[in-house]
Amino acid sequence: MSIREDHNRFRDIIRGRIKRHFKEYVKHGEMIGKREDEYVKIPVPSIDLPRFKYGPKQRGGVGQGDGQEGEAVAGEPQDGTGEAGNQEGQHVLETEVSLEELAEILGEELELPRIQPKGTKLNVNKNKYSGLSPVGPDSLRHFKSSYKRALKRYIVSGSYDKNNPVIVPIRNDFRYRSFRTSAVPQANAVVIYMMDVSGSMGDEQKEIVRLESFWINTWLKKHYKGLETRFIIHDAAAREVDEDTFFKTSESGGTLISSAYRLCKDIIESEYPVNEWNIYPFHFSDGDNWSGEDTRLCMKILKDFMLPNSNMFGYGQVESKYGSGQFLKDLQREFPDDERLVISKIENRDKILDSIKDFLGKGK
Questions:
Q1: The pTM is what?
Q2: Residues 171-185: pLDDT tens digits?
Q3: What is d(CA 88, CA 64) in angstroms, rounded to the nearest whole number?
Q4: C-alpha angle 361/363/364, rounded to 5°?
Q5: Residue 9 burial (CB count, 10 A)
Q6: DSSP code of 167?
Q7: In order of start, what are the domains of the chain with their CATH numbers?
């Protein structure tokens, strides 16, 4: 069996273990902190490590002979207390998995459909290896073509010896891979996350949002190579922040949801033409809002701008013992049959996968 086959078999084993424990990975965020570019490091338990086992005919060797288990060597006293264990230790292997592969596993587990991008596709310059050149760096040398040219030269010159088929290429034999730059149509998308950081949204609620947004992003990146992510936090006022601030801002203040919706609208209008971008706003809250008047303003912004110009608008209501949960009821009453609005109730970490299915299960 080749090294490549061994590696593929090992990857299949790892993939199977990840799928078996997938719900636990979704609920716990340790691996998100170990993200590096397009890979994350995942601890995979219960991987059996190879070990030697002696057959019945083998006798003697190190550790054989008279004596009892636990007896000191050469009569020297032993340190430590307690009895020796007789169970195998837990082997934990940390392996790198690409976000692309995680997205595939997520799609398989939740049976998610492919997303159908809308709007005009933007042209993106892409380098494609499409031919051979007589010059180039050694890293791009094409061995097969270089060898064939050298062999042809030997045969034409009559110097090829089938009993001693040694082929030594010269400089003119070498060929190198060459590329050309072409414009490739590509659908771009932006995800705009909005989160209530008022006094009723605690650390546990924000951790649920953090985990869910990671998996939403992972799935969307599978379908959009040009994915951008923006973050908005709000209490009585809204502001755009970076990802780190989004998840670590302390809770305080009251709640005016419309402040976040207005800022999101401004960002879309100024930077993301709706005929060129696939737009995914997500709002996470515990359902409290300052007043019925502000809620009516939110419904107007959704109806007049957000829903017509977005692939989908996702509202996730995180369970909180301090939140009333009223905003979800208001949305259901105002938009009872509008498929552009996807509403999900997230009671705890165990419901994260169900919520992701709510948001992404229609392939919008």
A1: 0.68
A2: 888 888 887 765 455
A3: 21
A4: 120
A5: 11
A6: -
A7: 3-48+91-110 (no CATH), 123-183 (no CATH), 187-360 (3.40.50.410)
Task: At 42, give phi and psi (nearest 5°).
Answer: -120, 130
DSSP string, 242-257: -HHHHHHPPP-S---H
CA distance 361 to 358: 6
Residue 109, token pair as written in the block: 């587990």
What letter represents residue 183's amino acid? A
The per-residue pLDDT for range 282-329, each reduced to its tens digit, is 999 999 898 999 999 999 999 999 999 999 999 999 998 877 789 999
Which tokens belong to 62?
Answer: 């190190």
Beta strands in the chain (DSSP E): 35-36, 39-45, 92-98, 122-133, 176-186, 188-196, 226-234, 238-241, 277-285, 313-318, 341-346
Location of structure tokens 């995180």: 318
3-state secondary structure of 259: helix
Q: What is the dihedral of CA 255, 319, 230, 253, to 10 degrees?
A: 20
Q: How many C-beta atoms surround the C-beta of residue 187 within 10 A?
A: 21
Question: Would you give the DSSP letter of residue 83?
Answer: P
CA nearest neighbour of 54 among 41, 43, 63, 46:
63
Quote the CA–CA distance of 24 and 204 in Å, as a whole number. Answer: 16
